[in-house]
């Protein structure tokens, strides 16, 4: 059973803003490290690619009109807690979009927390039994009552990944390329539209 008080005010306050999260990753990369405990060459190199992706998305993400309009009429004050890591490719494609949404509403407070530093929280939000990230948990400000969650990725990407995992001939590099090509072709639209539906649900 889910612990309703697993995300405390202290965890939210100690979480990262998007800019602080980016600075953290950059400072770790300067030491040839990434977030978490695996500082292998592959993980560090992949994190460098993720930084490029996030910086690009930070500059280029434009919210669809429908989403902007929904944000303007939000009634509830919300806290968005996002479970993430610098080495996660899906997080690199999604966290900047979440940050852009939060930036466009005074009703949304964003707090990014690292998965491997909060295994107890992560284990409340598993996907098919796995610790897949990013995971967005929406809480009502003040009470911290959970309004819902979303993630780790849009439904179409999740379906593609589940199918790819069934293919034993697909190498890790091919798998990664396929995933990021999907994100590039989709131009954040599925992420935005799914979050729009969630925001409507959470604000009702």
**Uncertain runs with pLDDT below 50, 5 residues or more?**
none
The strands making up the biggest β-sheet line up spatially as 2-1-3-4
Number of helices: 9
Helix content: 40-55%
Structure class: alpha+beta
What are the key terms here?
four-stranded mixed sheet; 9 helices; globular
List the helices and strands and how they pair.
Blueprint: H1 9-14, H2 18-29, H3 41-60, H4 65-72, E1 78-84, H5 89-103, E2 108-114, H6 119-122, E3 135-140, E4 146-150, H7 155-165, H8 172-186, H9 189-202
Parallel strand pairs: 1-2
Antiparallel strand pairs: 1-3, 3-4
Helix pairs in contact: 2-3, 3-5, 4-9, 7-8
Walk me through the structure.
This protein has 204 residues and is α+β, with helices and mostly antiparallel strands. Helix content is 51%, strand content 12%. The protein has helices at residues 9-14, 18-29, 41-60, 65-72, 89-103, 119-122, 155-165, 172-186, 189-202; strands spanning 78-84, 108-114, 135-140, 146-150. A 4-stranded mixed β-sheet has the order 2-1-3-4. Strand 3 and strand 4 (146-150) form a beta hairpin. Helix 4 runs parallel beside helix 9. The chain is globular and about 45 Å long. The two termini are 25 Å apart.
